[in-house]
Amino acid sequence: MRVCVLLILVVSLFAVSPVAAGSRPDAHAPIGVMGDHTHEAGGLMLSYRFGYMRMSGNRSGATHQSPGDVLQRGFAATPLDMDMQMHVFGLMIAPTDWLTVMAMLPLVDLGMDHVNVMGRRFRTRSDGVGDLRLTGLWPLWQRDGHRLHLNTGVSFPTGSIDHEDDLPGSPGRVRLPYPMQIGSGSFSLIPGLTYRGESQALSWGGQAQGTLFLDDNDHHYRLGDRAELTGWLARPWAPWLSTSLRLAWSYWGNVRGADPRLNPNMVPTADPDRRGGHRLEVLPGLNFEVPLGALGQHHLAIEFGFPVYQWLYGPQLETDWRLTVGWQHALQLFGG
Q1: Are 252 and 225 contacting, i.e. CB atoms less than 8 angstroms apart?
Q2: If you ran DSSP here, which 8-state letter would residue 19 be given?
């Protein structure tokens, strides 16, 4: 099924005549890419994204692990599946032509189902405000439909790493493992480089980005650094509709240090040496330009993705699919 969907989208990118030049629905990258464009002086953009990720089943390396396989390694419990919901509110503003500032604030809701060695199932939950991200976007080069800019971001530890929940057999609330904490507890640098190009018939682009955690948090650990590389191709079908196809590769390292209140023998998610991995995903998407009269042009987009390969320092929950739905609206405060 996934292969059929992918083939249909690839063919659709080339199957229709190009849209006339003008307002383009593919003027933005797919909604799952952040910091993909800059603005002229006085430009302002508001955005909202809803993200949902579904994870189920465990994997060690590239091999699937059943709950029994995990429990036979000596753990008292194993995760079965996890749901992650995220509401991300964004603001972009350009004080000058050579700098666009972007702020992103997430609200996160996490839920994870488990089973223990006695066969009892239980669920843990956490929710709250995540880490605030501020990014500067610096245009480097622009010519004949090609643009290149530098991304320089900083993440602030505004998300909690103190979430607790009730567990079977525990006399009180227990600190939740690393993937169930909303924040990182650490400052981080987020360098990146973004390229975009377009012709009358197509648009395309790519982005490389890293996340480097700078310090141990108050619980004596820091999350593993990340590296992400993505590229996309988009085709407008009409002045109000375009399709896109994106490939995304990501790598993330194991946790460095350890929270002393977590027992790595209780559940794999509490083991700092079982948190890293890498993954390659395919993500088709749709983009819409919606005119609302005096309220201006609004950009609506949706992107659905699934892994075609993942390798995990496991046992660790594997990703099944993810969905991103978003809204963007640009305004001109001055200049233009």
Answers
A1: yes
A2: P
Query: How far apart are alpha carbons 196 and 330 in whole angstroms?
Result: 19
Distance CA 3, CA 6 (A): 5
pLDDT exceeds cutoff 70 at 14: no
- Average pLDDT over every residue of 293-309: 91
pLDDT digits (tens, 9 = 90+) for 121-162: 999 999 999 999 999 999 999 999 999 999 999 999 999 999
Read off the tokens for 96.
Answer: 């000058």
Residue type (1 letter), 309: Y
Do 193 and 148 meet the contact criterion of CB atoms below 8 Å apart?
yes
Cβ proximity of 12 and 244 under 8 Å: no
HSE (side-chain half, CA atoms, 13 Å) at 308 = 12
Give the C-alpha distances (Å, rounded to integers) separating 266 from 85, 173, 179: 26, 15, 15
Tokens of 149: 């800019």
- What fold characterizes domain 2-329? Porin (2.40.160)
Q: pLDDT digits over 99-124, tens only?
A: 999 999 999 999 999 999 999 999 99
Q: Which amino acid is at 29?
A: A
pLDDT at residue 168, as a whole number: 86
Average pLDDT over residues 213-227: 98
Residues 6+ apart with CB under 8 A from 141: 147, 148
pTM exceeds 0.85 for this model: yes
The separation between CA 2 and the C-alpha centre of its own chain, rounded to angstroms, equals 21
The closest of 107, 158, 103 to 133, measured between CA atoms, is: 103
The tokens describing 307, both together, are: 């892994």
The answer to whether the CB of 334 falls within 8 A of the CB of 40 is no
Cis ω before 315 (30° cut-off from 0): yes
> Tell me, what amino acid is at 155?
S
Number of residues in the chain: 336
Domain ranges of the chain: 2-329
